[in-house]
Amino acid sequence: MHLNPTYLALFSIPWFVHAQDDVDTVPVESRNHWMRRSVDALAELTGSPCPFEAFGSAIVNHSDTTNSEHGELICIGANSIIQNGNPTLHGEIAAINNCSRILTSEPYNLVGREALGAFQGLSLYTTAEACPMCATAIRWAGFKDYVYATSLDTLVKQSWPQISLSSSQIFEKASSLPTKTRMVPHVLADETDPLFAWQFNENGKCPPGCRRSRIGEKTNNPAAVGDTKRTCVPGDKGDEDGLAGELADEAVAGAAKGLRGLWTALFNLFKVAAPVGDEL
Ligand SMILES: [Zn+2]
């Protein structure tokens, strides 16, 4: 039986990883490389450069440098709660599910217990700090590293609904588990923060490759409820100029409508007030 190096690297992972030193020995270039791969997973798995739920993930084996100095990609995942109607399919959980399928199939063919053990040698990258559900799953899996970009605080500031328990708080409560997971926060947050800055702010800039939709334009984006809200949709940046003109026209039209309303109200007031004046 031919065993490829990735298989050997995974199979040699101990069942329980003991206390690690706190020094992160993975080069910054490799951390950045895999964080960008997590971002790319979004377009690859959702088909859009600006999915509403911009939570992408990559799971990596840094021990295997056979094909790349940065390590070996095992699987990717992206938030797919809406596509699947499954509220647990956040980016991290989707990636863990994908990895479980991959590790128990060709070429790895690990049995369940071996696949569970393999997670302890892998690193999970995610475009944003995990919610309590995902942070807990990361600790149960016993990942070697957990690397995130955009912070929970930033998500909250951008009006994302969140359960306000940080990964640090979850990790602290998980200290009795037999594994340790190194947390590496804020990797390339300056590149991922814009992915979360437009969903709840109509004036937020769309990510590259996207433009604001027009009111009434049909979109597949859940942010455009009833198509009465502008959301980010795939499109040319050039369209933004045309849209800016439309927005200006709409603003003028809105202001004119407001003035008309004001005049009508004053007129009605005058009509009501006039008889009272006659009686005086
Ligand atoms: Zn989550």
TrEMBL record:
The keyword Transferase does not apply. CDD domains: nucleoside_deaminase. It comes from Exophiala mesophila (Black yeast-like fungus). The lineage of its organism: Eukaryota, Fungi, Dikarya, Ascomycota, Pezizomycotina. Pfam families: dCMP_cyt_deam_1 (PF00383). Residues 1-19 form the signal peptide. GO terms for biological process: tRNA wobble adenosine to inosine editing. Keywords: Signal. One of its GO terms (molecular function) is tRNA-specific adenosine-34 deaminase activity. PROSITE patterns: CYT_DCMP_DEAMINASES_2. This is CMP/dCMP-type deaminase domain-containing protein. PANTHER family: CMP_DCMP-TYPE DEAMINASE DOMAIN-CONTAINING PROTEIN, CYTOSINE DEAMINASE FAMILY MEMBER.
